[in-house]
Protein 1
Amino acid sequence: MSLTVTTWSLEQTAPTDLLPAAAPEGDDVRIIRAEVPSPEFSRFLYASVGGDIHWTDRLSLSYAQWQEELAKPGVETWVAYDKGTPAGYVELAAQEGGVVEIVYFGLIPAFRGRRIGGHLLSYGVRRAWDLAERWPELTPTKRVWLHTCSKDGEHAMDNYLRRGFKLFDTKIEQEPDVPTPGPWQGA
């Protein structure tokens, strides 16, 4: 079995492109950088956020491969916590020439629909634009980009467009329909 998947690539080319979302009112949402590369924690976030939307590309990575990815200069994981509980994350990765990719972004299903996503994305985009301030060996950011696809959450594309991202590429491909790691029924 296979799925037809549309993948959209979006970008910002200046920090002023960002149209930030307001922080959710009344919630105790904090966004903190996970400064110590932790394959266990990153795999937990990846599987928890992407389990119901077919994120499977990293599940076959070994511990050493996760560690290698997370230890690269300019790779950062920023985690949103709601009252101390991980709610979602954004992973940034520096690329050559001042380009930063938002490699992964999303919320654990129980935290979707609570206005945390726009806030977390806004915060992550700001951190992408100032990445070289924390990694002096990197070229200052000139472009921030990401991709989303038809398997992602129903509000993903709208959130990216509302934050000021512009579409620059669209691809349609067949992908294998593989089982996902969860979440379990009813989660």
Protein 2
Amino acid sequence: MKKTTKFALSGLAAGIAFAAFTTTAQAQEEWTMTSTWPENLDLIKIDQHWAELVNQLAGDELQINFRAGGTLMPGTEVFDATETGSIEAAGDWPGYWAGLNPAFSPLATTTSLFNGVDYLNWIQQWGGRELYEEIYGQFNMIYLPYGITNNESGFMGRTPIESIADLEGKRLRLSGRDQGRVLEELGGSQVTLAGGEVYQAIERGVIDAGEFSTPGVDFKAGFAEVADYWATPGWHQSASVFGVMINKDAWDALSEDTQEKLRIAADATMAWSLAWSERQSTEATQKFIDAGVTINQFSEEDLARIQEITNDVILRGACENADHAKVYQSMIAYLEHYATWRDVSAPFNMSRVMDNLPSLEEIEACL
């Protein structure tokens, strides 16, 4: 009798242990994640870095199966797929969704305003992170910004652009709602093309010049093979942000501990991406020079004029949409607040010293 009881108890304990093990094994989530970027565009490395880091940090609870952009669906469809839960996550550049809400435009990049460190500061300490979550939250998503690249290359093509006067009548590939409005004020025409189409558009003369990303990304995309001239700085995108869209239901299914690991991976990837892209840009700039590409820089007077037009475009957009106004209000408030320390530490500061910002009072009047 004692032996039977002992055996029964041992069997019960084993069963409990097995059930616990089975529950743990089944608790691991598997996500499908894709990107707006195909394999041949270097920006995909930011998405891959985050996915790999998550698998290292949270592999017992979550495994992300990452697929390059275009392998599951066109890049234009990843927003809807994540919103509806067809996939759990997708890497993106927020500006692609500005047609759904113009606030996505400054969440992605600014014309002649933020540099990479400004975005880092703003996201981490001045309320930016909360605004990403608020805007994407309108579409049943959580958003983790995890990539920052600094100033973009500028316009590359077979037609020299030496000043803003040379933009008159030019057809230029340009991304972004606000960017297109500024270009229009400068006399140019915005042409919308996917990143993978810019090379051929320059080669065939479909556009007078084009831009896509940082020098590192643009060189690997082959621009040095088809462009003779490069107009810099890239005022149209003074910095860019990338991140991951996560379906809200998939996010809520994770434990708080796992969610925190995903946030930690995002912060780590953000720091890595900024340094990685700056190293790539430095090396690629030399490669463009070695390839014989002529670099023309806009004058201080030209850049001041661009800033004036940018300020007007920001104010106009703010009064068209409350979310757009809310994001820019937060950005300009950050720049004004940070100036207390930033300007007295110049030129050893970590951000742009600016004396001509959009009017905070006029933006707030549009809220």
Protein 3
Amino acid sequence: MDLGEFRNLIATVRGEIGKVVQGQDAIIDLVLISIFAGGHCLVEGPPGTAKTLLARSVSAAMALDYRRIQFTPDLMPGDVLGVNLFNFQTNQFHLTKGPVFTDILLADEINRAPPKTQSALLQAMNERMVTLDGTDYSLGSNFFVLATQNPIEQQGTYPLPEAQLDRFLFKLVVDFPDWDTEIAILSRHASQALKSDARNAGIRPLVTSAALAAGRALIDAIHLDETILTYIVDLVRATRSDPDILYGASTRAADALASAVRVRAAFEGRDYGLPDDVQVLLVPALRHRIILSPSAEIDGRTPDEVLRNIKNRVDAPR
């Protein structure tokens, strides 16, 4: 596979997912970038904005294992990771693997589970490995978490700690579709069976494990010029000195942004990154990695607004 073939594959995958998830082309693109970059995605939006449908559609386009966890207040870490159970017939402990042992994991409404259960994913997301009773179990290089959360209803929810937020490559904000898209969605569903599984039926599984590995091999060869790396570092360091930001982005954030830039370049059929790649990915890569100052919050500013101001202030390489 060369870069031209890879670009065509990604365009086809976008089209397949776009048949079901309409009006969210930029979100679909960022989810695919995260998968190929080896990152994870946090999707935030009000109920009924196709967050779960997005995850199911992405998994349908990938010939990979997919499992879903509905996070609830009574969910325990063992329900996510699995447990060692004693078998009285063999007098040995036997591992019962939890749903985390998969390729694509949908962590639905992750902020409804208490911190001890949320933290069960920390090692899995960072190391793609789970340690149970002193034994390490690999989750494989394709392990990808797509977590959703609802920003409106806060009763019975537990905000994700900064350490876990930093494990997500992107935080994607899903909003309601525009009028034309909403009409198109209703028109499409009006011609389908009422079964919920019909809505992502017909998506072809285009990205096999081999195609994913081949795509990542191409991405590994993408070159980032010193000017692009300097630009990324200047942007990230600007978050640490901005008066509107109490805590800025980490070095891990800069490294994650650089990885995402390489993937976006490959998606566009280029073997080099551009300042445009950095600018497109800056806000989704950093919006969850900064903490606004109290004065900025009182003034009603948002992380997106503050990051856009930094982007406009820091000179891009020519």
Protein 4
Amino acid sequence: MTTQILTAVGAMIFGVAVCAAYFLFSNKLLELIFPTKEGGDVHRIAVNLRRRGLIRPWLFLGPALILLGVYLMYPVVATLILSFYGADGNHFVGGANYVWAVNDSEFRRSIFNNILWLAVVPAACTFFGLVIAVMTDRIWWGNIAKAVIFMPMAISFVGASVIWKFIYEYRGGTDTQIGLLNAIVQLFGGTPQVWITIPLWNNFFLMIMLIWIQTGFAMVILSAALRGIPEETIEAAVIDGANGWQIFWKIMVPQVWGTIATVWTTITILVLKVFDIVLTMTNGQWDTMVLANLMFNWAFRGFDSGRSAVIALVIMVAVTPIMIWNIRRANAETKGR
């Protein structure tokens, strides 16, 4: 343990030292190439200062941009090439993997499940987060409530799955139901069920887990945005006779619409990559398979790199438009300021 801590600390110190040395050396080199000594030609000094200003940002950002290019662009290109090869990655098969994806029923089921997750989870998280943010700002113990609601964010998806397994737990025969949901159903005279095996509905039971985790994130971001609404605006609406419902929908929501969109797109991207919950709870059985789990199965269980590459590209293509839209919206807001 001590060795690991020392290694980590040493790596941090070494990394910071290397970065500092690079910045100092590159800045010194820039000064040598474009000198600005006193007593020289004023025009040349001005030109050199302008060149330094143009080059210095790229000089400092260059290593990071190169690393991003290598670690982001190379995998995309390599995955695209791999999608045209067979299971072993050595035999060219053309578009056969894409034809398989279109005709495979499990792939189509995964697409449907992902669409279902996209339709429910981001909207539910954003809505509950907004409602809770508004409600907790009006009660004296609101900060305590926010802390409790935010706590699931600190739990990993696998840890949350273990917790919810106990909620959905089913015991057959005459055994006592230890699962919270089945215990409640039994208390009211209902019949206990193996909830995560019921087709279609089991997807919603899995979605509840992600909503439980991500609502805290939406609440914190939206709560900060709501605090930015001028009090004068709310007071003016109250004086004009607006009720709480009208203030919420016609004053608060339009004022924080940009933040709502940001939260929604962030959770949408997360949903497209959802993996841990499905793997831990059902392993994709009972019609709960999603694209990330299908990709994992073909890559590490079916050992078919070509088909897994096709699924990876589908996920990337689905995420990219949302990210582009989010970046453009953020840039538009920045220019507006």
